[in-house]
Amino acid sequence: MFRKDPDAPSQRRHTAKKVFDRLLDEYAAAGISYQVGLRSPKQPGDCSPYRAATSCFAAVMFLTGLAALAVVPTLPTAARDLDGVSLYPLAGCFVAASLLGGVLGGHWADRVGPQRPLAAGMALAVVTLLVSGANTSVWQLKAGRYLDGLAGGMVAVSINTAIGQAYPDQLRPRALALMSACWIVPSLIGPPVAGLVAEWWSWRAVFLGLAALTVLPACAVVAVLRRPSWAATLAAPPDRRPPRPALMVATAVSLVAALGQCGVSGRSIGHLLFAAGDFALVVVFASRLLPPGTWRAARGLPVTVLLCGLGSGVFFTLEAYVPLLLVTDRGAPPLVIGLAFTGAAVAWAGSSWVQGRLLGHCPRHRLVMAGALVQAAAVVVAVTGTIPAAPVYTAASAMVIAAIGMGMYAPSLTVLSLTHSPPGRLGYASSAMQTTQNLGQTTVLCVSSVLFNSCLGIGSTEAVSYGAAFGLLLAPCILAALLAARARSA
């Protein structure tokens, strides 16, 4: 009859292996990574394998935003109860500490992967919230806020690195847009809720409550990233270069930026000189932490990093001075200021959602340019709001318009930074973005404050001083719009 071929099973296995390898090659050519237990190759846009991690990342980022923003209304009450009102500006050093946290988290993520710095950042966040809630002096409160900023920087960079390493290109913009929204949404609900808790109960309950809320998401995200499939995807090649020089520079920059709070809180010549010296030191030391060519706006990652600092500096300065203008010069009630912050939070989240869902086909550098131009329009509105005849709501609307621009600007820059980052150096790129974001906020605010206080010192009215401080912000907006094309992805 029929003779059985002894080599048939081997041939069939060989044929099946060739077919399977061909399928993998086709998926690789389409930009689809195949990870057993992490991603199914059936549908390139399928996001189900990432839902658990995305949910944990979103919860962690949301609570990090609450720690940064929700406690702000409670800080004046805490300073008053601790007899430290004169030192109240020093308690707002969260941003300065985030700079060091971003550098530390980025170096750590490049050496061993993002799991460990993320876990360490979450543990530090819980501990520092407990310390802040149980403090007995304003200096302890300052230390708690500084360490909380350190933890926040580590967490943000680690999450961005994990998304850059594990998520496919189709899902990455939406995931980053969600992270951006989770950072902004706390500014919508956090301050009023924290203010009510502080008024009806105690400001300490705000810190202690946030510590309790952070424990469960922290454990969940660590458990998800410890799964074998995620551990294999997030494994980073060991980076044997010693991080000490960069970390020492980051520590110096962070401390100098924190002390710079003194310079922007006074009007005397000594305060102005201190602020100018602080700005110079920050620029000199920060060069060691940024990609080569950042100050020259070199194409690729350097200009992307520079653009991040310009945009965040403009928005943060508007957010600082518009409420001050409304209170001191226009006599606006607190409700108007609260509505301005709420409107800005909604506008940022909505704009971020639109650019991730509806404008995903647009080149990212064009969205960056559009965001910079929208911010320039917001600056013009803010300057108009300083005119005595202008309605009170004019200046308040500037924050909302600027938030619309940042919703397009910030997520697009994050996508470009991950695209331009060298292989195995996603943590470095995320760290550089976090560094310039914090530097932009501190230095642009410092320069605007020097101009504002100088105008007051020569006898200008408050309206003119505010107009000068706002008008200065047009320079970084226009510069960002002109440089956006240099950040174009290949």
Automatic annotation (TrEMBL):
Q: Which UniProt keywords apply?
A: Antibiotic resistance, Membrane, Transmembrane, Transmembrane helix, Transport
Listed Gene3D superfamilies: MFS general substrate transporter like domains
Q: What is its main location?
A: membrane
Gene Ontology cellular-component terms for this entry are: plasma membrane
Cite the Pfam families for this sequence: MFS_1
The record's listing under InterPro entries reads: MFS (IPR011701), MFS_dom (IPR020846), MFS_trans_sf (IPR036259)
Q: Which GO terms describe its biological process?
A: response to antibiotic
Q: What is this protein called?
A: MFS transporter
The organism encoding this protein is Streptomyces spectabilis
